Amino acid sequence: MFIGVSAPGIQPDWTGGTYADITSYGLRSDGDVVSSGQGSVFNNLPASAITQVDVLNKRHRNDRAFTAGDEVVVVLDCAASTLRLQSATVNLTMNVEKKVPAQQWVLNVNFWSGEYLVQMLPADS
Fold first, then answer.
1. pLDDT tens per residue across span 40-81
2. Could you tell me the maximum CA-CA distance found in the chain, to the nearest angstrom?
3. Per the domain annotation, does 125 fall within a domain?
4. Could you give the CA distance from residue 36 to residue 50 in angstroms, rounded to a whole number?
5. Contact 34, 26 (CB under 8 A)
6. For residue 53, what are the domain limits?
7. What does the angle CA 107 – CA 111 – CA 113 come to, to the nearest 5 degrees?
């Protein structure tokens, strides 16, 4: 699963995913950080972003950053150009680069095979 942001109106790739678009930023459940649509087949999650190393290391390799039952908090700060993703095992803040001068952002959640249940809750006021 991928959770992140991108520019509105991007077209999914052949798998139906949007995380590989040059405007995409976020985190895959395996711990792969995606920046400008670029990630890695290896875990590139910075050690400084891992909040519970013991829990993360006990999880299946595909569910290290977040897994079933985890709450993932997504905070996009357009003024600071940052995206923060926080789960039970990570707290990652990354810089997001606008690809066009007046870029807007949309939330992206990409799924792979399997069954998923996602609940979106509004931010606390």
1. 666 788 999 999 999 999 999 889 999 888 999 999 998 888
2. 43
3. no
4. 21
5. yes
6. 2-110
7. 175
Residue 14 in any domain: the answer is yes
* DSSP, residue by residue, 87-112: -SSBEEEEE---SSTT---EEEEE--
Q: How far is CA 23 from CA 45, 88, 116, in A?
A: 19, 26, 25
In a domain, 99, yes or no: yes
Tokens of 54: 């013991």
Q: Considering its fold, how many domains does the chain have in total? A: 1
Q: What is the token pair recorded at 111?
A: 């799924």
User: Strand 82-86 and strand 2-6: pairing?
Assistant: unpaired
For residues 57 and 4, what is the distance between their CA atoms, to the nearest angstrom? 23
Per the domain annotation, does 92 fall within a domain? yes
